[in-house]
Design brief:
Length: about 260
């Protein structure tokens, strides 16, 4: 059985992960559009929406805030991360172990960013190996933020790059590949095929209109994708619940973006 089928981070085999790690990845300026979301409690409150199958946060946020939400939210512990202040070749160092995520944070799943194509790729693959093996020995699903990135990569959302990103996640043993949207349903179909039994979810990206965003999610679902791992497109909306209601229809009920938004 696929580790996701039996996991609380999936609902009817689909998943919607709210990524709340951009305070580290991008800095507080990402919250300026809706300043209340700077407060992790607000984010966890939003994460109680029934469409959300997990909230992905870093260790520090999990330690301070998750204990109050354990009954209402599933936790995806993000085990590495890097700040926007780092100007070197892409590398995301490990800041939490799988054991700590299980024993101290009460995590339901773990997530790890891998920048294939970076000069640090060998180190990141080695780090991922350790994470993946420990997580699987403990029956925890592993989500790879599979982001090809580095000096040699000029366009990181080209169809062949995204299909490659999805394939890398399969080859290295991730249960879920979180990849950027490659621009079309057809390109996403390629990524889903390349990923084999590894499930593919779309990474949200910077904020676009409700309809544009929902249409990309619809294309991902039509392509055989498993769902979404989204940050800014939810947090930077005045009314995130409205978008989550629409996402629930597109992801779990198979509605079109246009129909979901009308309702
Ligand atoms: P977004 O939907 O805001 O893109 O969030 C998804 C995510 O993977 C976050 O987990 C992370 O903070 C961010 O994207 C990193 O994106 P990038 O490295 O492209 O800035």
């Amino acid at each position: 059985m696929h580790p996701l089928s039996d996991s609380p981070i999936s609902r009817d085999g689909k998943t919607l992960i709210l990524a709340m790690d951009h305070g580290l990845e991008h800095g507080p300026s990402d919250f300026e559009a809706v300043p209340e979301t700077l407060d992790p409690e607000t984010a966890f409150e939003i994460g109680t929406h029934p469409a959300v199958t997990a909230v992905a946060v870093q260790k520090g946020i999990a330690e301070q805030y998750y204990p109050s939400y354990e009954d209402d939210v599933n936790l995806l512990a993000k085990l590495n991360g890097t700040s926007n202040l780092w100007m070197g070749e892409p590398y995301s160092p490990k800041n939490c172990t799988v054991e700590y995520a299980i024993e101290e944070l009460n995590a339901d799943a773990v997530g790890y960013t891998v920048y294939s194509g970076s000069n640090h790729e060998p180190r990141m693959y080695e780090d991922f190996r350790e994470i993946q093996e420990t997580a699987h020995r403990n029956d925890l699903p592993v989500v790879m933020w599979s982001y090809p990135r580095g000096q040699g990569l000029k366009n990181d959302t080209k169809p062949e790059v995204i299909a490659y990103a999805a394939r890398i996640a399969l080859e290295l043993g991730a249960d879920v590949a979180k990849v950027k949207y490659p621009g079309s349903q057809e390109a996403m179909e390629w990524a889903v095929r390349a990923a084999g039994g590894t499930r593919v979810v779309m990474s949200g990206g910077s904020k676009v209109s409700d309809l544009e965003f929902l249409r990309s999610v619809e294309a991902v679902m039509n392509a055989g994708g498993t769902g979404l791992a989204v940050g800014r497109n939810v947090w930077q909306r005045e009314d995130p619940t409205r978008l989550l209601d629409a996402l629930e229809k597109v992801i779990y009920e198979g509605e079109t973006a246009d129909a979901a938004i009308e309702e």
